[in-house]
Amino acid sequence: MDHYHIWVNLADSHADLEFARAVAGWLGHLRERGLIEGWRLSRRKLGFGPAELGEFHLEIETRDLAQLENAFQLAAARAGEGERLHAEVYSRVADFRAALYRDFPDAVRRE
After folding, report:
1. Among the listed residues 4, 5, 7, 3, the one whose alpha carbon sits nearest the alpha carbon of residue 56
2. pTM given for the model
3. How many other C-beta atoms lie within 10 A of the C-beta of residue 11?
4. Residue 41 lies in a domain
5. Is the residue at 85 inside a domain?
6. What is the per-residue pLDDT across 46-73, written as a single tens digit (0 to 9) for each?
7. Number of domains into which the chain is organized
8. Do the beta carbons of residue 6 and residue 96 sit within 8 Å?
């Protein structure tokens, strides 16, 4: 399993629930189409965390890089319902940071 991590702040910190609904709409759309396996949205608690990471953390799970690439292609098309849902998310964020991790040890690891 690959884990795509995203950290952001909100452009408007008062729109936190709207952001959460937008994330659920966009990532639900991807999941329904088999483009991701799952996702989780979390928020920093009590201000704990490195200053360079945003207040919100999003983890997206995919089977492999091919599945993640297919999700990226849908976003990159910038058309149709996918674009509308994606815009609802990215138009609300600032200070985007991302990282990609994998389960370890994974199925391809040889001893």
Report:
1. 7
2. 0.92
3. 13
4. yes
5. yes
6. 989 998 999 999 999 999 999 999 999 9
7. 1
8. yes
